Description:
This protein is mostly beta strands and 722 residues long.
Amino acid sequence: MVKYLFSTASYFFFFICITSAQIADPIIPVKLSVAPAIDGVLDEDVWNDSNSFSGFRSFIPDFGKEIPFGTTAWLSYDEENIYFAFRCHDSEPDKIRASVDSRDKIRKDDWVCVNFDSFNDQQSLYCIYVNPNGIQMDTRFAAGNEDIGMDLVWYSAGRINPDGYTVEIKLPLKSIRFSHSDPVMMSFFFERYVSRLSTHVSWPELDPDRGYAFFGQMRPARFEGVRHYKLLEILPAVTYSYRGEQTGGKITTVENKPDAGLTLKYGITSQLVLDATINPDFSQVEADAGQVDVNLRYQLFYPEKRPFFQEGNETFKVGSTGSSSLDPIAALVHTRNIVNPLAGLKVSGKAGAKNSLSLLYTADRVAMQDTCLYGRYAHIPVLRYKRSLKEDGFLGFIATSVLRENSYNYVYGADANIRTSKSSLIEFHTLFSDTKDTAAAIDNKTGHAVGISYHSEQRNIDYAITAKDISRYFASQTGYIERTGISIISGSVTPRLYPRSKFFRRFDFGLFTGQTKDNIHDKWETNNSLTITGFLGGSVRTIIGGNYSTEVYNDKLFNTSGFRFLFTGNAGTKLDGTFSFVRRNAAYYAGLSQAYGNIFAGDIRYLPSEKIHTQLTLTYQDLYWKTDREKIFDYLLTRLKITYQTNKYLYFRGILEYNDFRKSLSTDLLASFTYIPGTVFHVGYGFMSEHREWDGTDYIESNRLHEMKRGFFLKISYLFRL
């Protein structure tokens, strides 16, 4: 299989795309002499003189449909900023869903979005969202993935009116990377989401035969006479942290220290940026939600939330990774593996019109208990290079390293995305690793990972096929890889039906089959499933599915078949929820035995007012022996989160999480003020209690909760932009 994949990958590496993007006449935005006030009121003359765009049409759940009320967008600019405005008509303004929430929390509201390709090269998008109250969300989209971690400095305002709502946006050119040329070419795609209809509409209208291949369907725009900055940002931060743990019946101090750090951003050009940080604060404000941590085959995955790593993170996505539900390579660069860095350096952006470059270096402190084996620091350089092809295709190279005393891990290789038609894309990668770890008796273990996938997406049908080979000793210490020593071939097809009904809006029928060869134990696994997804009424979505599957673990074959059900929807503007149930066979890894069990998850969000948000999350999982039906365990996690958002800048939040399996209660309190990304004040306090107590000699079970851990956190930072 490896030889076949290598030869196929080599062929497509030099394959020339047979189609080219449609060329549309560029928009010529009006250049302003007087900037509009960003107050959400469209009363300035600029919005009469600037380009306006109407005739928005739907693309989710179906293409080309009109909604009952119209949408108009405007675009203008001056030397230093780009300005946008939206007028969103709505005949039932009381049904508009609009909260006052913290940044990046408005996905379930009504909103408008400006998607724009600042280099007009079809490789990545900035996406800036605004809800009717002017609350912001921003993301970065590249290689089929949307990263919500990016935070830009921009300004917005919104107003709900008797006939709908209006939004104004000011985007400083200092906040984005763009071509170092004149004129500057960008491309745009305007979007509106109506929550109660679960409908997305856009201008320009998307072609159903191209599906959601956004890049080739955006409208170019030409900006003349803009300023090209050499940006300088200085971000000092001061933190204080305290941690205490109970020992011998008393809380003793584990950590008690003030700290300070400095982060710099320098724009080498308007398209290439240098970031540097010394002693950064890489703590995260939002606590990780608990997950079921028993009967695990793989390490739990937690998303990256730390700002230094989030910016530019989308460039590290490698072609044909995460290509199906069976793909064990989730990421080659998962920066949560960098735990406690001393310093960091990053260069990211473009060199020329077609070359994208990202270079990340961090010096990570080794855990104290491991310094005798690996020294004090792990040095972690990561290099990513991409050369853009026609449309949204690219050829890429990636290299990562983790270097410690008596140990190293190198990963390097090439990848590509090549568009073969307006709806079809081929992705592949060829990767190699070399690992040495004297302490773990690993000496120069080499490995490879080769993968190729083809997928096509249109209005009426999606289909994909993927083949992978991952050798036993392939390793990436910067990444997240669940499993090695396997070969996989999988395929899927998803036809869609659009009934002529106001209630039954769309049905997706998903068929998937995958066959995995466990090369270590020379055994085959299978995974076959059928799912039916229904879009019902205005906001209800359901998924019903069943699967026949097996899994090889420690040379034994286990049945993992089962079925699942999911329901998600809104009830008015204040209540929404998601519920799922899974009944499945499973392997009990600790006992090497066949088992079965249930998984239930529920997430209910209620907004008693636009400023108060409550969210209740329940996760339950159980497991039983297959032979005698005796219970092995049951695990219940309950999490309650209450947020009071006084305005767009300041909120107070409390989290209670009870782990019934561990018999522990965690409390997390936070006050957070964010004026703009970088200029922040956070203060938090948390503690954890358990059903344990000190009897004078040892800890024993208790009917009461006793505090076992506590912590306090303070952060102040201010962004200087020159």
